[in-house]
Specification:
The protein has 798 residues and is an alpha+beta fold. The chain has 21 helices and 27 strands. Strands 12-13-14-10-15-16 form a six-stranded mixed sheet, with helices on both faces. Strands 20-19-18-17-21 form a five-stranded antiparallel sheet, with no helix packed on it. Strands 3-4-6-5 form a four-stranded antiparallel sheet.
């Protein structure tokens, strides 16, 4: 990218913000060196890195890279046997500690998928033993720990002892024999040796070496002869201490040298990660999104906000170019946002191609341009004898030579600074040539000729920055497809220019130009009306969607309520049927006991009781009537059709055709009942079969009971193909088995399974004896392997 475009579009200000987001000096350096790329693979990789880093920031919070410094030059010195200084070793330690902290921060949960940054984090090696050893030996840049080595510890112990001896002897002299000769009762140091401040007149009274004197000469700093040897010993120990410190540093440097490659790798990885997370922090600061890149020359920015403007005041714009048209002419009043729109497109292109997110809505699209050329602002130069027009023409000539179909060209006020007629003609010629060469171009203008050119030329489109004539304030909205008015007369009138001047000015405008401006004004009014209608339609659509959602919720509540009612009704019907079954069983037992010898009056009395009970049951079951899904007509029914009786919640087949009142008989298993057309609905044949233990038990055939009374009982609704007699004595087991076989025969079960267990065999013997004498038992056998063996008997019914 040419430096001029980067400067005009204020790319450097974005880089300054990016640099501020970095935490380390190497990371800041990488940010300063960032320039746009033209390789789409590199761009998409960097965009992916920024996206992964931003996701981690939102998920885990920020991470600091402040401990990273570029120590690669110092590490190179180790290759020639050099020793690192204390500050250099501490710098290495901080790098390793930062690597450990960053790697610990980067850990993800087991249920999270690794992102594109995971390999970089995994490649970090904190070298914790080395970092801990450096911290143990070096306390600060001015202090080495006593236990850094055994030799250093011994030397410092001797130094402490020597210090104590010196201070003891000097203390005795200060408080004793030499007290009267001293200027002050203190012990001081000169040139690293301990001395006493002796009055000049008593110099002969304190034998020793004179190291210094006061500015007045009244005080001499004398090292007493008694401690000269101790001071000499202390100097020797200090030299020994320095030698031990150098040995410690050499040992640590050798350990660093062993891990030199890994440390250099950590520095490079941490610098790269700092650079990536700085891009993510910048995107987070202005709520940026990742642009979608293409190589088709198509730009579509949705809700774009210039990143250098106040985010609370900036008005988002929608702008596109490259698909339906490759030349966009933006017109409108001054300070209306034309130049901002121009700069937004150019700056977004530079940011996107640098791996940065753009402050725009999701799914915004950018294309890869090899060059961006921008002629924006007044670049007149007195030193170079360039007027405004000459400066613009110099830029345009430069563009002309280098621009191609992979370039983006931005013009602000093309053709301005000279005669309007010639400027407009020149601008049309320039834009026509760029358009013919397929170069994506955006230009701002006030010339009506350019607006007409855009209206009449295929592949060229008008756009305008909206202006509110009522308030004489721009709205800063960019509208594509509509040319804009300069509104010079309206603005001047509002600002107080006399009306007669305005009228005279209008008289100097040609009729053709006035008609064109009227057309533009008409288009603007039409656009506003259309937008208002569109907003009304949008409100109506939202209201309709809200009503639809309310209706769906209401329907769901009704469905839930219906299901609950049906469930309760089925449960109640089940209880009624069970009660009816028990009553019928009791009635059959009574009939069997009465036999043929029962008195007619008793038999009739029992029939009446049964009829009353059944009538009551039918009334209970028809208390909550169901409504058929579809009304059944008499002509639709045929004998044998499968139907469902809604009041009884039973399925059956049609036995007779409806009479004049719509009544007909339906066979439901062993039940044959008279129902009305309004109480039935047609069902598929495959729905009418009854399932017993997961197997179809076949259609129920009508079974008549004595006296013509029909018992509305569906045995197959509750009968199972197995009876468990375990734990019962023979008499109870036979009675229960007898009742069970009657139910099984009524339900038309082909076979049943009798569980009697193995035990002593008495219960099995009693069961087999009973089965042998039962007239409806076809055969029986003990169960095979997997069926229960000898603890189970399989009975086949006739």
């Amino acid at each position: 990218m040419n430096e001029k475009a980067l400067r005009i579009l204020e790319y450097s200000k974005i880089i300054e913000r990016l640099e501020a987001a970095a935490g380390s000096a190497p990371g800041k350096k990488r940010c300063r060196e960032l320039t746009p790329y033209t390789d789409i693979e590199i761009i998409e990789r960097m965009q992916g890195e920024t996206s992964d880093a931003l996701a981690r920031l939102f998920r885990k919070g920020s991470v600091s890279f402040s401990g990273v410094t570029d120590m690669r030059f110092s590490l190179k010195r180790l290759e020639i046997g050099s020793t690192l200084s204390i500050s250099e070793l501490l710098g290495i330690c901080k790098i390793l500690e930062t690597a450990g902290r960053v790697r610990s921060w980067s850990r993800i949960r087991e249920d999270e998928e690794p992102d594109g940054l995971a390999p970089m984090f995994d490649a970090l090696e904190p070298l914790s033993p080395l970092a801990n050893e450096i911290r143990r030996c070096i306390l600060s840049e001015d202090e080495i720990a006593d236990d850094a080595s055994s030799g250093l510890k011994a030397v410092r112990r001797k130094m402490d002892q020597t210090h104590d001896k010196i201070r003891s002897q000097l203390g005795a002299m200060v408080s004793g024999s030499a007290k009267t000769y001293l200027q002050d009762s203190v012990v001081t140091q000169r040139n690293g040796r301990f001395c006493l401040p002796v009055k000049a007149e008593y110099r002969s009274q304190v034998p020793g070496m004179i190291h210094d004197q006061s500015s007045t000469g009244s005080t001499l700093f004398i090292e007493p002869m008694a401690i000269v040897k101790l001071n000499n010993d202390l100097r020797e120990l200090e030299a020994a201490e320095q030698k031990e410190i150098e040995a410690v540093l050499a040992e640590l440097s050798s350990r660093v040298a062993v891990n030199q490659e890994q440390i250099i790798s950590d520095i490079e990885l941490l610098t790269q990660l700092d650079f990536i997370f700085a891009r993510a922090q910048l995107a987070k600061s202005y709520n940026g999104f990742q642009p979608i890149f293409n190589t088709e020359g198509y730009v579509n920015i949705r809700k774009g906000r210039h990143p250098l403007l106040d985010p609370k005041k900036v008005v988002p714009i929608d702008i596109r170019i490259g698909k339906d048209f490759d030349l966009l002419v933006i017109s409108g009043p001054n300070t209306g946002g034309k130049t901002v729109s121009l700069k937004t497109v150019g700056l977004f292109t530079l940011m996107g191609q640098s791996g940065l997110f753009i402050p725009a809505a999701e799914h915004s699209e950018l294309t890869v341009f090899n060059e961006v050329f921008a002629d924006i602002g007044d670049e007149q130069s007195i030193e170079q004898s360039l007027s405004t027009f000459s400066a613009h023409m110099t830029n345009i000539v430069s563009f002309w030579e280098h621009a191609d179909e992979h370039s983006l060209v931005l013009f602000d006020e093309l053709g301005a600074g000279t005669d309007p007629t010639e400027g407009a003609a020149l601008a049309i010629a320039i834009l026509s040539d760029l358009h013919s060469r397929g170069i994506r171009t955006i230009a701002t203008t006030h010339y009506s000729e350019l607006k007409i050119f855009a209206l009449s030329t295929p592949g060229v489109e008008n756009a305008c920055c909206e202006f509110d004539v009522a308030t004489l304030r721009p709205t800063y909205r960019l509208l594509i497809g509509v040319p804009g008015k300069s509104n010079a007369f309206a603005i001047s009138t509002r600002l107080g220019l006399p009306d007669y001047i305005i009228e005279e000015a209008k008289g100097h405008v040609s009729q053709e130009a006035e008609r064109f401006e009227d057309v533009v004004a008409g288009l603007e009014e039409t656009r506003i009306a259309v937008e208002q209608e569109r907003e009304k339609l949008s409100q109506l659509r939202r209201a309709a969607q809200s009503l639809q959602k309310d209706l769906e919720n209401r329907q769901q509540r009704l469905n839930d309520s219906r299901d609950k009612i049906l469930s309760e009704a089925r449960e109640e019907a089940h209880l009624i049927l069970r009660d009816a079954k028990e009553f019928a069983d009791e009635t059959i037992r009574r009939y069997n006991k009465m036999g043929g010898s029962a008195a007619g009056r008793d038999m009739e009395k029992e029939r009446t009781r049964v009829r009353e009970k059944l009538t009551g049951l039918e009334k209970d079951m028809t208390a909550k009537k169901a409504t058929p899904k579809k009304e059944v007509k008499a002509r639709q029914l045929h004998i044998g059709d499968a139907v469902k009786v809604l009041t009884m919640n039973l399925k059956g087949t049609v036995s007779t055709l409806p009479d004049a009142r719509g009544n007909l008989y339906v066979q439901m298993g062993i039940l044959r009942s008279q129902v009305n057309l309004k109480d039935i609905e047609l069902i598929d044949d495959n729905e009418s079969s009854v399932m017993v233990d997961g197997k179809p038990a076949g259609r129920k055939q009508p079974v008549r009971k004595g006296g013509g009374t029909r018992i509305n009982i569906n045995k197959s609704a509750s009968i199972h193909a197995e009876i468990n007699l375990l734990g019962k004595n023979s008499d109870d087991a036979i009675r229960e088995l007898d009742k069970y076989l009657d139910d099984a025969l009524l339900a038309h079960l082909p076979s049943v399974r009798v569980v009697h267990g193995k035990g002593t065999g008495k219960l099995r013997q009693a069961v087999h004896e009973y089965l042998r004498r039962h007239r409806r038992v076809d055969s029986y056998r003990l169960g095979d392997f997997g069926e229960g063996d000898s603890g189970v008997t399989i009975v086949t019914l006739k």
